[in-house]
C-alpha cells in the first residue's frame, strides 16, 4: 500500500552544466537507471525541477534544484515477525545487519517464517516505517556476517551496479581442512549446478566464470584460517572453490571432505587404510566441533548510493566460530615444533 514518498534525493546544477537536458542530469549526474527513470516519469512527484513537475526534455539552468521522489512501498507478502537480529548501520537509504548463522535471508517455498525478512519487516513496522525488503546480496543460511538491505529502488540499483563493476569489497573468513599448497592466490574455476545433484554446485569448464582470491591467515594442525575476497557472486562459491583445491570448509555437511567416501569405512573401523583413517579421524573431529560450515562474511565496503562516501562494515565473529578458532589456536600452541622430539630434555 502506497501512502506517500520517501525523502527526495536532490541535485544542485553547477554552472558547468547550465543548459543541459534534465534527462542528461538524471542519467549522467544522478545515475538514475532507465528502469527507475521510466518509473519516476509515471509518478506524480517522481521528477521535480525547482519544486515543479516537468518533462525530462526541458533544459536546466545553473543553480536549479533537481529532485527525484520514490513512492513508499511495503513487502505485503512477508509476514512481520518479532525476531532478533544485529544492526550494524541504518539510515534512510540502507540497513546493514550482521546475519546470524541458521537464518534464511528471504522467505522461500517451505520457509515462510523465521527468516531475516520477517524480522526486518516487523522491526520497520514497529517504528512506523514503510520499506520493501530488498537484500542487495545473499548469504547462505548457515553463513554468518555482513548483509546489506536497500530501502528503495535507487539504493538497490546503485549498490548492485557497484557489485557488477567489482568495486564492492567483500571479505570472508573461512576455517578449512588442510592448508592450501600455495598460501595466497586466485581460484579461477567456472561454477555450475551438479547434474547429478542440482542443489549442489561444482567446478566445471562449462560453468559460469567465477573468481575467488584467498590468503592463508593462520595454520593449525590439519587446518587453516583463510581470508577470501569474492570477485564474483556464485551460489556456494567459496565452499565449492575451497573444496576444489582440497581444502573444504570445516563443518560443511553438503560439501564434505573427500576422505569420507575415499576411505570407504567410518573412522576407526578395521579395513580402512591406516594413513587415511588417521587423517579422517582428524577431519571428523573438526567437523564435529561446529554445527555448520565455518564461514563468516567479516567485512564489506562500498560507496554510499546517495552520500557517495565510502562505507566499511565489519561483523565480529559469532560465538561458535570464536570457539572453533580458540580451539585450533590452543592445539597449535600445544603442538611440538616441526622436527622436535617431545622427549628431548
UniProtKB/TrEMBL annotation:
**UniProt KW keywords:** Isomerase, RNA-binding
List the InterPro entries: PsdUridine_synth_cat_dom_sf, PsdUridine_synth_RluA-like_CS, PsdUridine_synth_RluC/D, PsdUridine_synth_RsuA/RluA, RluA_PseudoU_synthase
Question: What PROSITE patterns does UniProt report for this protein, alphabetically?
Answer: PSI_RLU (PS01129), S4 (PS50889)
- For the protein in the UniProt heading, the enzyme class is isomerase
| A GO molecular-function descriptor | pseudouridine synthase activity
Q: From the UniProt record, list the reaction(s) this protein catalyses.
A: a uridine in RNA = a pseudouridine in RNA
Family per similarity comment: Belongs to the pseudouridine synthase RluA family.
Q: What is this protein called?
A: Pseudouridine synthase
Q: Which organism is it from?
A: Paenibacillus riograndensis
Amino acid at each position: 500500500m502506497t501512502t506517500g514518498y520517501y525523502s527526495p534525493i536532490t541535485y544542485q546544477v553547477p554552472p558547468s552544466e547550465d543548459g543541459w537536458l534534465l534527462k542528461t542530469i538524471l542519467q549522467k549526474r544522478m545515475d538514475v537507471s532507465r528502469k527507475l527513470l521510466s518509473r519516476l516519469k509515471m509518478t506524480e512527484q517522481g521528477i521535480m525541477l525547482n519544486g515543479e513537475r516537468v518533462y525530462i526534455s526541458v533544459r536546466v539552468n545553473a543553480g536549479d534544484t533537481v529532485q527525484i521522489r520514490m513512492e513508499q512501498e511495503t513487502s505485503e507478502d512477508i509476514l512481520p515477525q518479532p525476531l532478533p537480529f544485529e544492526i550494524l548501520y541504518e539510515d534512510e537509504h540502507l540497513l546493514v545487519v550482521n546475519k546470524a548463522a541458521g537464518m534464511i535471508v528471504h522467505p522461500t517455498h517451505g520457509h515462510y517464517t523465521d527468516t531475516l525478512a520477517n524480522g526486518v519487516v516487523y522491526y520497520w513496522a514497529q517504528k512506523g516505517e514503510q520499506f520493501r525488503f530488498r537484500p542487495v546480496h545473499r548469504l547462505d543460511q548457515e553463513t554468518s556476517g555482513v548483509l546489506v538491505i536497500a530501502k528503495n529502488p535507487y539504493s538497490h540499483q546503485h549498490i548492485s551496479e557497484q557489485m557488477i563493476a567489482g568495486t564492492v569489497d567483500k571479505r570472508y573468513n573461512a576455517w578449512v581442512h588442510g592448508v592450501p599448497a600455495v598460501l595466497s592466490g586466485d581460484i579461477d574455476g567456472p561454477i555450475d549446478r551438479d547434474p547429478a545433484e542440482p542443489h549442489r554446485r561444482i567446478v566445471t569448464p562449462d560453468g559460469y566464470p567465477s573468481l575467488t582470491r584467498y590468503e592463508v591467515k593462520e595454520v593449525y594442525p590439519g587446518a587453516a584460517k583463510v581470508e577470501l575476497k569474492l570477485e564474483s557472486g556464485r551460489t556456494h562459491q567459496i565452499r565449492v572453490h575451497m573444496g576444489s583445491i582440497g581444502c573444504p570448509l570445516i563443518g560443511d555437511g553438503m560439501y564434505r571432505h573427500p576422505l569420507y567416501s575415499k576411505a570407504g569405512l567410518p573412522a576407526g573401523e578395521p579395513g580402512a587404510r591406516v594413513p587415511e583413517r588417521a587423517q579422517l579421524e582428524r577431519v571428523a573431529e573438526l567437523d564435529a566441533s561446529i554445527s555448520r560450515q565455518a564461514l563468516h562474511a567479516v567485512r564489506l565496503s562500498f560507496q554510499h548510493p546517495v552520500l557517495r562516501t565510502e562505507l566499511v562494515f565489519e561483523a565480529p565473529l559469532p560465538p561458535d566460530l570464536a570457539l572453533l578458532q580458540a580451539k585450533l589456536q590452543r592445539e597449535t600452541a600445544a603442538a611440538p615444533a616441526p622436527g622436535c622430539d617431545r622427549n628431548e630434555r
